[in-house]
Amino acid sequence: MAAPGAGPVVFIGLMATGKSAVGASLAARLGWPFVDTDQLIVARHGRISTIFSQQGEQAFRTLEARVVAEVLTDAPEHQVVSLGGGAVLDEGTRTLLAGARVVFLDADLATVRRRITRDRSRPLLAGDPVEAWLRMDRERRPVYELLADCVLDTRGRTIDQLVAELIQQFQLTQS
Ligand SMILES: Nc1ncnc2c1ncn2[C@@H]1O[C@H](COP(=O)(O)OP(=O)(O)OP(=O)(O)O)[C@@H](O)[C@H]1O
Ligand SMILES: O=C(O)C1=C[C@@H](O)[C@@H](O)[C@H](O)C1
Ligand SMILES: [Mg+2]
């Protein structure tokens, strides 16, 4: 694990582990601004599934890296950012994360199974979502672990519990 940085609080982790939900809730609790890079991409370029189907994954990754760089470059300390699950695949993004307080939301299949089978909007989980999620877990877990200043085990925990734990761990204060 990297030494804890002092930049924005940034959530990383696999699809459906709660990056958007926990990030938004933490920001609301602290009165800090919240940016979800997937939401920013959708606002600017349209639905993620459409980008994947019309332009392909690589085009999405290029747009994503650009948006993430814009958000993370000189980001204020009192800001919460939730990344898309695959954003860490970009080397430039990994470099920028060195200046952030990076939280890896860890989950197992039992925790996410209902979420990934109910919501079929994620293009990389089309087909067999369970098999795809497990494969990405194997491939990406080492990257998430390497980048993380804090690994938060989300199993059996409510969003409120996770927010409280982070506030305590990083000694975060309202602005
Ligand atoms: N700890 C939790 N307890 C209960 N429900 C949760 C928890 N964390 C997230 N959820 C719910 O699971 C679903 C997926 O969460 P969310 O969209 O935040 O995941 P994500 O990590 O942002 O996924 P993606 O990478 O696809 O953007 C949402 O409906 C969210 O409210
Ligand atoms: O894990 C991934 O590669 C992805 C996760 C989502 O957040 C979106 O960014 C997109 O669906 C790709
Ligand atoms: Mg999300």
From TrEMBL:
Its EC number is 2.7.1.71. It catalyses: shikimate + ATP = 3-phosphoshikimate + ADP + H(+). One of its GO terms (molecular function) is kinase activity. Its cofactor is Mg(2+). Pathway: Metabolic intermediate biosynthesis; chorismate biosynthesis; chorismate from D-erythrose 4-phosphate and phosphoenolpyruvate: step 5/7. ATP binds at residues 16-21, 122, 157. Substrate binds at residues 38, 61, 85, 140. It is found in: Cytoplasm. SUPFAM superfamilies: P-loop containing nucleoside triphosphate hydrolases. Mg(2+) binds at residue 20. PROSITE patterns: SHIKIMATE_KINASE (PS01128). InterPro entries: P-loop_NTPase, Shikimate/glucono_kinase, Shikimate_kinase/TSH1, Shikimate_kinase_CS. Keywords: Amino-acid biosynthesis, Aromatic amino acid biosynthesis, ATP-binding, Cytoplasm, Kinase, Magnesium, Metal-binding, Nucleotide-binding, Transferase. Its main location: cytoplasm. Binds 1 Mg(2+) ion per subunit. Coiled coil: none annotated. Monomer. Catalyzes the specific phosphorylation of the 3-hydroxyl group of shikimic acid using ATP as a cosubstrate. Belongs to the shikimate kinase family. This is Shikimate kinase.
